[in-house]
Amino acid sequence: MEDYDLNNPDTWVVLEAPPCDPAFDAELLRIGGLNRNKEPNLIKVWGATHRAKGVLLYHLCDTEPVIVGYQFHRRRGGRLQTVETIEEVPKGILAQPILESVELGERRWIIHRWVSPEELDQMGYFDPSLRFQPKETDQFGAAIAEAKAMVIAGEDPEKAWIKVENQLDRARGTEIDPTCKQYFDPELRERGDYHFFFRLERKDGTYHPPDGEAIEAIDALWQYNTTTTPAEREAHAAADAEKQQQEKRARLDALWHPQAIMDRRPALIT
Q1: Is 227 part of any domain?
Q2: Which of 71, 138, 206, 256 qualifies as a FRET site for 59, CA 20 to 30 Å off?
Q3: What is the mean pLDDT of residues 180-184?
């Protein structure tokens, strides 16, 4: 699998998912089983094209924008018109170019695991107070509290969010993270969501195919996650990070220690 080459624009294209043996999906099902929605706990997605709520989830960069058309008004307050070439724009009319670029995502297979609504709740996924930017106002905070009470009382979450948006329009200077809508998303609250679990990639950062070797790694990670607590995994991650820092310091010491510098210095000509 060829990766993007920054020096070769011909590689800056969206690649569709390469063929994958159905047996790989069967192995994922064997490892993770089904969730309570009767859906697999583990699924694979292609990073170059996978989107969630319209967003390219594993976005790397955009290609250089190119002009794909022009927009203009024939008269002030008139209808906005669009054409493909500058020659189609009437003389004496100021036209705005329409720029378009291509989003490029990771050319990697990504394994997602199902996360239950209860786990999402523990992560603060449904707490709107964790999704706001610092500029929220008392007026807006009151609207959120009222909307939250509506949801808890069994009201339609969409109606609650509309109330928040209307209040937001009246609360100047307020900023909100769009992901706050997750709190009001009934599907997430009922069915859960899929989150990142594992990236199929070799140690040198190159593409790894969905094969038996990948299955062994996924199986080991799944077993580790199901036999340890979040606190244990956090402690292990901290220990690994500290070990990496120690190894990094050791490499720097070997490179910049005065004796190492003297050893690398060319012999003096006498």
Answers
A1: no
A2: 71
A3: 57
